[in-house]
Predict the 3D structure of the following.
Amino acid sequence: MANAHLPRSFAALRTMKPLRELYQRNPLFAVFGAAHFLLALLLAVYAPFNDEQVLGLNSVIKPIKFALSIGIFSWTMAWFLPMLQDQKQARRYSRLQVLCLGFEQIAITGQALRGEQSHFNTSSPIGIAIFSLMGVFIMVATLSSLRLWWQLRRQQAFKESPSYVAAVKNGLLLFVVFSLFGGFISAYGRHTVGASDGSEGIPFLNWSLQYGDLRVAHFLGIHSLQAIPLFAVLFAKGKAVKPVHWFTVIWLLVVGLTALQALLGLPLLRTVV
């Protein structure tokens, strides 16, 4: 594929054996994912020198988490998209996701460096505008993923095994559902149930140890995109589609229970006193 438009610093991806096929499958997502992993590393190095705090935590922790999550998503989709027969649509999907998620990461990182919240920020016109635009971009990204799922669902022929195809479809559908659940969290106005955001939390993830936290279900739900296909690769053989569907149901029940637990104001783990 032509890649003259890509920065030279990323050309090394083609010579790194573990990433070679990933780059060949989807150069844009491969580079975008690598850039986010690099950003996470740079922010982690910067974190000890950062004096800004948001809700009592080092402000760059949040952009590190989002950079890692977007990096994982990008490389996952780079691997999956060759399944789609309409590769023109796959390229359009890639460009749209890069635009939307790139804006999300810039907004989150920029606000963090300013010592400001990115989500639920209604303290100033700028904060409101950024949070609103983030909502628009993430909705566009989610709806485009729903369209991708619908195209895969309608597609008749696949080179991959039926169990793997079923796993990708199921994982993508749950990814969309729990991305929309993220919209519910935004509408709720905070991720903590039973108190304001900022209570004591699990290290790094910061899920509340005292109250319900809606981020648990959102996190597990969007990573259905990785969990279900991984199950298929490890445990489902060839045409064995039923185990994939059963695992999907079990995974959905587990994630649903964490959502119910949070809505009842109960933490995933309690603080041990």
